[in-house]
Input
Amino acid sequence: MLQTAVFGASGYAGGEVVKIIDGHPEMSVGFLGAHSRAGVSLGSVQPHLGGGDRVLADNDPAQLPDDVEVAFLALPHGKSTETALSLRDRGIKVVDLGSDFRLDSNDRYLRGYGSDHPHPEQLADWAYGLPELFEVADEDQVAAPGCYPTAVLLAIAPLAAAGLVDQTSIVADCLSGVSGAGRSARDDLTFGAIAEGVRGYGLTNHRHRPEIEMGLELAGVPEPRVVFTPHLVPMLRGELATVTVPTDTDVETARSVLKEAYDASPFVSVIDTPPQTRWVVGSNQAMVAVWVDEWTGRLISQCGIDNLVKGAAGQAVQCANLMFGLPESTGLSTAGWMP
Output
């Protein structure tokens, strides 16, 4: 049994990692870290994970049992860096669900986060963990993509890499449930602020735009330019990306390219109807569909995911499976919670 550690187990993404590993036939949780809730029981913080005597510890790598082989970091931005470096020095493999190591250069990091990376020399040592597009099997340090980049890249990367679209004019409009903002209390995330309304945010400077453009470049797309508009919608979880881009291709060709790209993937389904978030919530599945609007000469590609599973915890476990030579679908569901 592969022993794991989960840092940030009191949050939404960290709790989802624990939930998945609890049902994983080849993994077991050997350490639970949660800085602000250290010393309390997991059940008191994450009651849906059951009671028992599991107690949260501080997010301190020095407290890890000697048999831990892989650590999942579900920490706020800026909190993973030193923890990850300490774990690496102990020979422990790391999957970071946070944003500290997703970008491949300090220039991109500066554009996305407005400051220099504290250890820019380390960025090149991390693999970008979107297994449908990039290899992670031989890696020791994997940065799981953000939820928005996951959905956008799955929707458009194979099409752009095949030269079917104008990669300099990609428009990505995305809708996400509020759990994507994390569990910390904020005035703008209260029920009164969220219910009965939809709002856009980060319209010209969201940190995920440099990540999306980087992912496209890693997929072989030269000099991509993306207009990225995220929206917060009044639902708990689920995410839908709608990507539009000029094209000269036809829908049959576009659909064929997507089906070939994801033919071997257990988690990406290319469908003929607009995906709905309710079909994928609770699962590691992504549903992708594509159309060509002949009137405007634009391709429309949509991808629906659960932002906490395929957009976070499930994808992290998928990466860990591959890092340890397990079938990538081990312990992960392709069935949503419908209805």
Summary: The chain has two domains: 2-144+310-323, 147-307. The chain has ten helices and 13 strands. The longest helix spans residues 147-161. The radius of gyration is 19 Å.
